[in-house]
Design a protein that fits this description.
- The chain has six helices and no strands.
- With 161 residues, the protein is mostly helical.
- It has a domain of 52 residues.
């Protein structure tokens, strides 16, 4: 059976990054044989099958896409990484910028968590201080009640005598 180039490209988009769906799953959903999809992948990787170029420039990538490209590029050897980056229209400088951008964002989130932790520690300290104050007040009230009962008992004894 012959498939249109657009259909092949849509299947390859699902199997290749950033989607990375499994070949079996795509095969079941589309009705295309697994081996056919594998053949298309091999043609794509060897450069015989021109995949649709990405319309986005590297600065238009979302943070998730940037992270995915960083992860994928780390899997390739030095020779293959150039081809991988060319397919996506990305330069190695973009990878270093994106890596730093993600690290900065993570550091910023960790900084927010640290300040949040400090606020929670202050709140705990204030609550413990309030609890201690109330415990002391309760102990004082209990002592006064005990003394009142003893006084009442003594007065009752004196009246009985």
């Amino acid at each position: 059976m012959r498939y249109s180039e657009g259909f092949k490209q849509s299947i390859l988009k699902r199997v290749l990054p950033p989607c990375n769906e499994g070949i079996r799953q795509v095969s079941r959903e589309t009705g295309v044989n697994k081996q056919t999809i594998c053949n298309w992948l091999n043609e794509y990787r060897s450069g015989k099958f021109p995949a649709e170029r990405r319309d986005l420039s590297p600065r238009d990538y979302s943070l998730k896409e940037k992270y995915h490209v960083l992860l994928e590029s780390s899997k390739y050897s030095d020779e293959d990484i150039g081809r991988y980056l060319r397919e996506r229209g990305v330069h190695t400088e973009h990878l270093t910028m994106w890596d730093q951008e993600i690290r900065d964002m993570l550091d910023k989130k960790n900084g927010n968590k640290d300040s949040e932790v400090n606020l929670l520690k202050k709140r705990i300290k204030a609550l413990e201080k309030e609890l201690n104050r109330k415990d002391k007040a309760l102990a004082e009230t209990t002592a006064l009640l005990v003394l009142k009962k003893k006084l009442d008992a003594l007065i009752m004894e004196d009246e009985d005598d």
